[in-house]
Structures are given as C-alpha cells and as structure tokens.
Amino acid sequence: YYPDDVKGRKLPIYISDDQEEFVRQIGLLLGKKPSGKDYSNTMGMYMSDLSQMGSVAKGILLNGEFFFRGLRPDPIKNTLWHEMTHYVFFTALDYGVSQSVPMWCYEGIAEYSGNEGKRPVFTDTAIEGMKSECDFTDLHFPYVYQNYTGGQSIFCYMEDEYKASGITRFLNTLYSEGVDASLQKNFSIGIDDFEMNWKNNLHRFSR
C-alpha cells in the first residue's frame, strides 16, 4: 500500500565506498558521531527524523562493504526494497494517534516486501522458540531473527489466510488505527487470537 503523499516524492539514496565511509555517512545524517554500535553486518539503513509533520526521511544508506564485493543482484535489490518499505511505512504512519507499532510488524513487512515471493524457513527448535517466546503485544520479540524473518512469516501467514489484498487493507487501517484495531476491522479477529493462529500454523515454515 503506497499512500498518495509518498508517490512521486524523491528519496535520497547514499552508497558508501566501504565500511568506514558507511559509518561516517551515518554520523553526517545523524548530525553527531554514531554510538558504539557495531554496523559491520548492516547492509542498509533507513534514516528519518520525527517532527510535528510526522516522519521526515533523511535517506537510505547502503553499505558498500557488501555491495562492492560482487554480490548477486538479489541481495542488493532485497536490501533496497526492505529499506524503501520502511520509508513508506513510517511516512504513512499517523503519529497524531497514540500507538506503538511492534518491531515484528515494521521489520516483518519490510522482509516480506524485500523478499517478494519467498517464504522464510525455520528449524523445529526456532519454531518452538517462537511459540513460547513471541508475544504480539510486546514492542519486540526476544531475538532479532524473530522480528525479521519471524515477522516475515506473520505476513506470509496473513497472505495465506486473507490474500495479498488483505495485507493491503491491514496496512491501510494500521497507519491510522494501530495493529489490534486493524486486525479487528479487517479480519474480525483480536491480536491474541491472531497470534495463536499464527503459532498453530508455524509448521508451514518448517525446514
């Protein structure tokens, strides 16, 4: 779902020469020296500022340490689509409404969009971990992969049950009303029951 106010808008995309340049560009866009976070495994990043007008994009940064190593086109395209999905998502979100969007939602839809047509697969151990550890009402799941590929599986499951048009409706309502209200309005199901149904069907993603 692409809202009207992001159609036709220009979005700066920066490609660094290497890891050092990537970190330097982060600092330039932040307006300060980056924290001690390790960015060595970060292929790309969407950066924005919050204002009274909502989320204002600063741009997408791509880490040349990865992109100039002769990577096949797919990872480059996937990373760019992932970060562009963040741009659309956070630009469209209504910050005038008191809502907190969980990490599984914004990273899950970015993985789903960035890996179009592909489904994640998990070991039995990972599936059991997600069943016991993931709570849809938390702001983030305990482990990083659970928010990214785990979140992707949530949207793949949503497509299985409600088709791609269901995801469009879900996002359209979520932007202004939040996750729980969107599930209720579009699928007549509460967040707890939706979580339970997803967990009961995680075997679909078994390796």
Descriptive notes:
The protein is mainly alpha-helical and 207 residues long. Helices cover 54% and strands 10% of the residues. It has eight helices and three strands; from the N terminus they run E-H-E-E-H-H-H-H-H-H-H. The chain has helices spanning 19-30, 64-67, 73-92, 103-114, 124-133, 144-177, 179-187, 191-200, and strands at residues 13-15, 44-51, 54-62. The chain has a three-stranded mixed β-sheet, with helices on both faces. Strand 2 and strand 3 (54-62) form a beta hairpin. Helix 3 (73-92) crosses helix 4 and helix 6 crosses helix 7. The longest helix has 34 residues, at 144-177. The chain is globular and about 45 Å long. The mean pLDDT is 90.
Total strand segments: 3
Helix content: 40-55%
Coarse morphology? globular
Could you say which structural class the secondary elements and strand pairing correspond to?
mainly alpha
With helices defined by DSSP (H or I, 4 residues minimum), what is the helix count?
8
Distance between the termini: 30 Å
**Fraction of residues in β-strands:** 5-15%
Rg (C-alpha, Å): 18 Å
Q: N-to-C SSE series?
A: EHEEHHHHHHH
Describe the largest sheet. Answer: 3 strands, mixed
Instruction: Note poorly predicted spans.
Output: none
Strand order of the largest sheet: 1-3-2
